[in-house]
């Protein structure tokens, strides 16, 4: 209320309502700056969920729309309403061990809040594939020390301990041979005799 008092002590007054005009204020992204996911998970897996606070409590300034920017933004997608982030393709640790991107919250008045995020990919052990041939031959009577086969394999994993290998033998005739656990070199335990046994069956792994 405003009151005017004159020199003689008389007053006049008026009740006044001062209205506060809402001004758009920028949102603040409150979700974490890091996240992680195991490689080979389906592309539909949610790897991060963006969250934000906004001082504004009424529309349109309190609405939000999520988007992505940054180095690896094109490799991910974000739900504009929920902030759920997914990879566009299943992650492969050996090809790319982390993704860098920014989550951006744009409110109804056009102001934004953002946060830089690093998504780390966790290495998962993947099975090796034996690449050496399915057949081999050796002349009978060769010394038992003769290498009759060398096992080889490829492994998607490139870092220890998942990329190490140890060779062993199984199968019908495994007891008649030995394999070097490190090199995959297979030798007969005794000189071969064609007339006694013309072939051997084994499995390397």
Question: What does this protein look like?
Answer:
By secondary structure, this protein is mainly beta. The protein folds into two domains: 24-122, Cadherins (Immunoglobulin-like); 125-205, Cadherins (Immunoglobulin-like). Helix content is 0%, strand content 36%. It has strands spanning 2-5, 11-14, 28-29, 34-38, 46-49, 52-53, 64-69, 76-78, 84-87, 98-107, 112-122, 129-130, 147-150, 153-154, 169-170, 177-179, 185-188, 203-204. It has a four-stranded mixed β-sheet, with no helix packed on it. It has a three-stranded antiparallel β-sheet with strand order 5-9-8, with no helix packed on it. β16 and β17 (185-188) form a beta hairpin. It starts with a strand and ends with a strand.
CATH architecture of the largest domain: Sandwich
CATH-defined superfamily of the largest domain? Cadherins
Shape verdict:
rod-shaped
Task: Write out the strand line-up for the largest beta sheet, numbering strands in chain order.
Answer: 4-11-10-7
The number of distinct β-strands equals 18
Helix/strand-derived category reads mainly beta
- Please give the share of residues in helix: under 10%
CATH class of the largest domain: Mainly Beta
Distance between the termini: 91 Å
Radius of gyration: 36 Å
Tell me the number of structural domains.
2
């Amino acid at each position: 209320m405003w009151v005017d008092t004159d020199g003689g002590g008389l007053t006049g007054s008026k009740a006044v309502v001062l209205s506060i005009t809402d001004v758009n204020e920028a949102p603040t992204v409150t979700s974490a700056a890091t996240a992680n996911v195991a490689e080979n998970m389906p592309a539909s897996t949610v790897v991060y969920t963006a969250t934000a606070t906004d001082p504004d409590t009424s529309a349109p300034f309190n609405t939000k729309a999520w988007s992505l920017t940054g180095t690896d933004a094109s490799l991910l997608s974000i739900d504009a309403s929920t902030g759920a982030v997914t990879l566009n393709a299943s992650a492969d640790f050996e090809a790319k061990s982390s993704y860098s991107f920014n989550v951006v919250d744009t409110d109804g008045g056009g102001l934004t809040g953002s946060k830089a995020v690093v998504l780390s990919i966790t290495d998962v052990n993947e099975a090796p594939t034996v690449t050496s041939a399915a057949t081999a031959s050796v002349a009978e009577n060769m010394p038992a020390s003769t290498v009759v086969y060398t096992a080889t394999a490829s492994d998607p994993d490139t870092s220890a301990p998942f990329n190490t290998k140890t060779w062993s033998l199984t199968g019908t005739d495994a007891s008649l041979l030995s394999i070097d656990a490190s090199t995959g070199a297979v030798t007969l335990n005794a000189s071969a005799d064609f007339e006694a046994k013309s072939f051997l069956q084994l499995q390397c792994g």
